[in-house]
Design brief:
Blueprint: E1 65-67, H1 80-93, E2 101-102, E3 108-116, E4 122-125, H2 133-138, E5 149-152, E6 158-165, H3 170-180, E7 190-198, E8 201-206, H4 213-220, E9 228-233, H5 246-287
Parallel strand pairs: 1-8, 3-9
Antiparallel strand pairs: 2-3, 3-6, 4-5, 7-8, 7-9
Length: about 290
Amino acid sequence: MVAGPPEPTGEPCARSASRLCWVSMTIGSSMSSGYCSLDEDLEDCFFTAKTSFFRSTPNKVPAKNVTQAVEEEKPEPPTIQEIKEKIEKYNAKVTNCLLMKLNDDGTYTGFIKVHLKLCRPVTVPAGIRPQSIYDALKEVNLADMTDKRTSFYLPLDAIKQLHISSTTTVSEVIQGLLKKFMVVDNPQKFALFKEMRKDGQVLFQKLPLTEFPLYLRLLAGPDTDVLSFVLKENETGEVEWDAFSIPELQNFLLILDKEEKDKIQQVQRKYEKFKQRLQQTLKEARGKPG
C-alpha cells in the first residue's frame, strides 16, 4: 500500500525586485537540462548571473504571475492496483523515455524537472575540484575538505532533471539539489514550489517538506505546462539576516558598495553628456548673427 501525500499548505511567496548588477564570483560546476540523478557527477563549467535580495514595494497593479494558496481536499490513499493503473496511463502519455516504473513493494520511481529560480547568491566551498565519479560512488563530501567559502549566482531559470522515488520527500529533493552543486547554505533558506497555470495566470504553491513530488507528478501527468516544480528562496516576509553567515553578509556589503559606485558613475556620465550638449548649443548660438 502506498500512502498518498499529505494535504499541501501553501503560503504566498514574494519576489525580490532590486537588481544587483555586479557578479562577484564564478565556480566550476554544471547546470544542464539533461537527465541526472541525485548522485550524478558534476561536470565543469563557469557561471555568472545577477541577483537581488531586497523586497520591493508591492505594486497595486495585479501581476500576471500570482502566488497564492490553493486548498485541496486530501485524497484517499490509493491502492497498489490504482497506482499501477495511474502509472500505465502516465506512461501512455510520455513522449520520451522518461517513464515511471512500479516496484514489487508498491513503490515506484520516475523523473521530475526542477526549475531553479534563485535570485540570491549561494555559498559553496572555495578552491576545491569538481566532484568526480569516484567521489559520488564513495559519497565523499568535498565541502568538508575546506573551511573556505565563496559565493556565486546560479543561472536564472536553469532546469535540472532528477530521478527519484515515490518515497522521496520535498526536503530530500532540496537537500539533494544543494549537495549536487556543493551548496553549503542552510536548506531552510530554500523551498520547493509547484507551478500551475489557471485562467491565464501562473500560480505558485509552496510545498510542505513532507510532500512527495513524484506522486504529484503522477497525478498531473507528464505535461509540464500543467504542473512543474520550482526551487526558490524560502521567503517568509522580511529578510532574515540572522540566517546568513558572516562571509555572506560581508559579500552583500561589497555588492552594495560596487552597485553604489556604478550608479554614481552612470549619473555622472549622463549629466556630463547633457552638459556637453548644452555647451555645444550655446557655442553654436553665439556663432550665429543676432
